[in-house]
Specification:
Blueprint: H1 3-26, H2 28-39, H3 56-74, H4 85-98, H5 106-127, H6 133-160, E1 164-165, E2 173-174, H7 186-192, H8 194-206, H9 210-229, H10 233-249, H11 252-275, H12 285-289, H13 294-308, H14 318-325, H15 347-375, H16 379-395, H17 405-423
Helix pairs in contact: 1-2, 1-3, 2-3, 2-6, 3-5, 4-5, 4-15, 5-17, 6-8, 6-9, 7-10, 8-9, 8-10, 8-11, 8-16, 10-11, 10-16, 13-14, 13-15, 15-16, 16-17
């Protein structure tokens, strides 16, 4: 598109965008948060610049943070209660920021801290905000809507545009490409679909009307196709674990329905991985059975732990650590750093290497507190929050994903359900009937 057409399009859309920004600032939880949630699956694929904050989801996050800050400052009520997990994540960020003092690559650490800090602030502001059923419902709907549009975009790529883009090859599409390569990255895209899929599945088994249950069941199938289009083993495993956790946390009657979906989905996923219909989940046998370099990375990371696991190498410096340590591990391959091959592919290993023992302890503590909060939710709200969080914890055993918005959105979802429960306790079900749908007001 020519610069002139872009300028004209900008002029036409400017009033609408300003109206959306103004509305988000006035009602950040009711308008700003759903917009932010819906944009998460698109990542760098919808951006206006190459900077870390150039994506539309990042800009929506900045507007959301500004609105929540204004709301917090102008509030005349009592001071909000600070949940236990919020100080933990702020201390984690503080350790990451302080690591710039001894970092082996200070510029990298400062750049990473800037991104991490923005996400921690957004999470904390949401965790401190009032939530009602309407806000929670809107956010859930936005998460599912954004995921639906992203998966439909993937289907258009697959059937109309010649396939998905390959890694690190601009404009090249082929059967070897994988959905999400031009968005968050295929593995991260799969994990970003966990929360929307769990939400859709929960509604597919708890909505009182059969037509609504059928509609959400079709949405579950669509999102599962999206995960399989990424050909991500991590995403497929995490989805299976998340659905299992949802089943265990659901009322008895809903539990049977969830297990039925899990069985059907498992069979469908196995058939797709074996036969690759429509070139979905195409991977060679070697790539399916290999560790994709993870075993080399983990061995090098453990070797580096001798030097760095006390105080850490500095936030964001794992690629430098790998490059410096690889020669000390016999048989470890010299991996190509382009595209993220140097990443730790394990959040626990990344935390202890980059931030030392303090970082690992804080990461574990943050997850434990969120798990405890999710497990104590009423039965009618527990399943999606606990399922999505457990799925995320499994996923980060194979990915380094803390600087991506879906990580913090999952924690926000747990915090929102906790806040809603504290102000408006949900009635417990007896297990004899599905729950009623929450208000959409």
């Amino acid at each position: 598109m020519s610069p002139v057409l872009l300028a004209l399009l900008g002029l036409v859309l400017a009033p609408a965008l300003l109206a959306v920004v103004f509305a988000s600032l006035r009602q950040p939880m009711r308008i700003g948060l759903p917009i932010f949630a819906a944009l998460i699956p698109f990542g760098k694929g919808v951006a206006i610049g190459p900077t870390p904050f150039g994506s539309l989801s990042s800009l929506a996050g900045l507007v959301l943070a500004a609105g929540l800050l204004l709301q917090l400052v102008s509030s005349r009520g009592s001071s909000p209660r600070i949940p236990v997990d919020t100080p933990i994540w702020f201390i984690f960020f503080g350790v990451a920021a302080a690591s710039a003092l001894w970092s082996i690559h200070r510029a990298t650490t400062l750049a990473g801290v800037e991104v991490l800090g923005s996400l921690v602030v957004v999470y904390a502001l949401v965790a401190l905000s009032h939530v009602d059923r309407g806000i929670l419902r809107r956010t859930e709907n936005a998460l599912m809507a954004g995921a639906t549009v992203a998966v439909c975009y993937g289907l258009v790529q697959l059937f109309l545009l010649g396939g998905f883009p390959e890694n690190n090859v601009a404009g090249l599409r082929s059967p070897k490409g994988r959905f999400g390569n031009d968005l968050l990255g295929n593995n991260l895209e799969a994990v970003a679909l966990i929360l929307p899929l769990v939400l859709a599945l929960d509604r597919a088994v708890t909505e009182p009307r059969r037509s609504r249950r059928a509609g959400y069941g079709l949405l579950v199938a669509l999102l599962l196709v999206g995960v399989l289009m990424t050909a991500s083993r991590t995403g497929t495993l995490a989805i299976a674990v998340a659905v299992g956790a949802l089943a265990l946390a659901s009322p008895q009657r809903a539990r049977k329905r969830v297990m039925a979906y899990l069985s059907v989905g498992g069979v469908a996923a196995a058939l797709v991985w074996i036969y690759h219909p429509g070139n979905i989940a195409v991977r060679t046998f070697d790539s399916v059975t290999s560790s994709s370099g993870r075993s080399d990375i983990w061995q090098v990371g453990l070797e580096a732990c001798r030097k760095y696991c006390a105080a850490g190498s500095g936030w964001g410096t794992f690629p430098d650590v790998y490059a410096d340590t690889q020669s000390l591990v016999p048989g470890a391959r010299v991996l190509v750093g382009t595209g993220g091959s140097y990443q730790a592919h394990n959040l626990w290993l990344l935390a202890v290497v980059e931030l030392g023992a303090a970082g690992l302890v804080l990461l574990v503590a943050g997850f434990v507190v969120s798990l405890s909060q999710a497990a104590r939710l009423p039965e009618t709200r527990r399943g999606p929050a606990l399922g999505a969080l457990v799925g995320l914890i499994v996923a980060v055993c194979f990915l380094s994903s803390m600087e991506f918005k879906f990580f913090w959105m999952t924690l926000m979802f747990v915090a929102m359900n906790r806040n809603l429960t504290e102000t408006e306790p949900a009635p417990e079900t007896t297990g004899s009937a599905p729950r009623a749908a929450p208000s959409t007001a």
